[in-house]
């Protein structure tokens, strides 16, 4: 037993020494001249957006780190629960997003020294302030927390019988709280205070949680075995603490928050939605064009006589139709290391192509066999028969189904927001975080989608009428 334990320790130490010897994390950052910071900008005062630009204490710390390393800071916006995946797949170099260095997280990533210490609070409706005093008041109650966060784990472990609601965005949890779908929302004290200041119907109470085994403060996450980079960043953190810069950063964040809430009308945030419309239309257009081309090719392969191509096309269609679009997009982005916008467009096109293939195959099968026989009897080749006789008739048959696919594509493209593509859904969440309004941005997004879909529907109906009279 002792010999086995000694051997295991020796192997572990050897592996750690080898990892340290092979560590070039700092050198790699300096060589490329940039350090990519991943963050979820819906968490004021740590990180949020003003005029579509990320600001807050974590952004300021990121800039100081980049300055001290002599490189340029690049901020990549992602959902909070995708940040560690982005780190492990080297999409980002560090996570600065109010993350706590919990023991579970330390198993997969490295952490810097803590740069800020904040307690854990609970946000409640002001009308309930006499009911709830601390976390024990929420036994068997409905409690919300951000998915993948320390607060989520605190609710699970310390609030007995809690009916936990986990969402990726704090803004959505605030809406859930104000509409009484949850009784309380657990958040870091600084964040809770920021939200309550801009929501007069809410108040914050001290959570009173036991934080002994939850990680010490807030720290920066790095890929495993990034010792040299962590050491360099710790020097910056030491300087920040000595000069008490976090106080300045929080004060600056407070000023930025006032800018956001000075005018919270949706019209003043129209640039956010316009940007989202542009990306949504781009992704939908590329998805339609590539989807039709891919779908046509797959349909012809399935109807052809070349067995390997037929099997390959059938397997592709069945696999794509049997897996969620969200998983496909995330696999392209994280698994194959494709840029976010490209991954979104390719994912949507690949998914659409599988469905379009079935529409086209069904349309071709619906054309009477006599049409093919008549064309061949007139001397047309198989290729010309398909091109000039079968496909035009099939197109008329499948046009309504294709139209529905095009309409669905506009709405389903919202999936790309999970990997940080700034489509309409992503932009509405940014507006929610900036204005502290929950319902109004949803209403605007609904109107935008309706206008886009209604316009496309009229265009498709016009094209259908033209084809019927052709």
Automatic annotation (TrEMBL):
Membrane topology annotation: Multi-pass membrane protein
A Pfam family: SBP_bac_3
Keyword Isomerase among UniProt keywords: no
Gene Ontology CC annotations of this record: ATP-binding cassette (ABC) transporter complex
Keyword annotations: Amino-acid transport, Cell membrane, Membrane, Transmembrane, Transmembrane helix, Transport
Principal place of residence: membrane
GO MF entry, a single one: transmembrane transporter activity
Tagged with keyword Oxidoreductase: no
Alphabetical list of Gene3D superfamilies matching this protein: MetI-like (1.10.3720.10), Periplasmic binding protein-like II (3.40.190.10)
Residue span(s) of domain ABC transmembrane type-1: 277-460
Transmembrane segments: 276-300, 330-350, 439-460
Compartments reported by the entry: Cell membrane
GO terms under biological process: amino acid transport
InterPro entries named among the record's database cross-references: AA_ABC_transptr_permease_3TM, ArtM/GltK/GlnP/TcyL/YhdX-like, MetI-like, MetI-like_sf, Solute-binding_3/MltF_N
Family: Belongs to the binding-protein-dependent transport system permease family. HisMQ subfamily.
Name of protein: Amino acid ABC transporter permease
Organism of origin: Schleiferilactobacillus perolens DSM 12744
């Amino acid at each position: 037993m002792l010999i086995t334990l000694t051997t295991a320790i020796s192997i572990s130490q050897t592996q750690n020494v080898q990892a340290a010897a092979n560590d070039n994390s700092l050198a790699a950052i300096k060589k490329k001249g940039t350090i990519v910071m991943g963050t979820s900008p819906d968490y004021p005062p740590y990180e949020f957006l003003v005029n579509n630009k990320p600001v807050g204490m974590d952004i300021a710390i990121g800039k100081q780190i980049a300055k001290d390393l002599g490189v340029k800071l690049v901020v990549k916006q992602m959902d909070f629960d995708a940040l560690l995946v982005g780190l492990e797949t080297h999409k980002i170099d560090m996570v600065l997003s109010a993350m706590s260095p919990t023991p579970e997280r330390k198993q997969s990533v490295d952490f810097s020294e803590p740069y800020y210490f904040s307690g854990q609070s609970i946000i409640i409706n002001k009308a309930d302030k006499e009911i709830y005093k601390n976390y024990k008041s929420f036994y068997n109650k409905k409690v919300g927390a951000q998915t993948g966060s320390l607060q989520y784990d605190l609710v699970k472990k310390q609030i007995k019988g809690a009916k936990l609601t986990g969402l990726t965005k704090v803004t959505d949890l605030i809406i859930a709280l104000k509409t009484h779908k949850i009784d309380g929302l657990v958040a870091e004290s600084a964040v809770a205070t920021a939200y309550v200041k801009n929501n007069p119907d809410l108040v914050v109470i001290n959570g009173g949680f036991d934080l002994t085994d939850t990680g010490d403060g807030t720290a920066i996450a790095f890929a495993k075995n990034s010792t040299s980079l962590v050491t360099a960043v710790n020097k910056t953190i030491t300087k920040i603490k000595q000069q008490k810069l976090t106080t300045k950063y929080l004060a600056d964040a407070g000023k930025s928050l006032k800018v956001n809430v000075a005018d919270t009308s949706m019209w003043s945030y129209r640039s956010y939605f316009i940007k989202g419309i542009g990306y949504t239309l781009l992704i939908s257009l590329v998805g339609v064009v590539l989807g039709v081309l891919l779908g046509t090719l797959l349909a012809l392969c399935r109807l052809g006589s070349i067995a390997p191509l037929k099997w390959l096309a059938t397997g592709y269609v069945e696999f794509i139709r049997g897996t969620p679009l969200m998983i496909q997009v995330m696999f392209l982005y994280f698994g194959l290391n494709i840029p976010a916008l490209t991954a979104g467009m390719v994912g949507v096109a690949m998914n659409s192509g599988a469905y379009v293939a079935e529409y086209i195959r069904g349309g071709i099968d619906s054309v009477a066999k006599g049409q093919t026989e008549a064309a061949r009897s007139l001397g047309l080749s198989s290729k010309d028969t398909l091109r000039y006789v079968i496909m035009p008739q099939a197109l008329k048959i499948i046009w309504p189904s294709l139209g529905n696919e095009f309409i669905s594509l506009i709405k389903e493209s919202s999936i790309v927001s999970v990997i940080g593509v700034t489509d309409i859904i992503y932009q509405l969440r940014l507006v929610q975080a900036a204005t502290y309004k929950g319902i109004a941005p949803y209403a605007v997004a609904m109107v935008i989608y309706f206008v886009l879909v209604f316009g496309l529907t009229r265009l498709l109906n016009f094209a259908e009428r033209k084809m019927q009279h052709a």
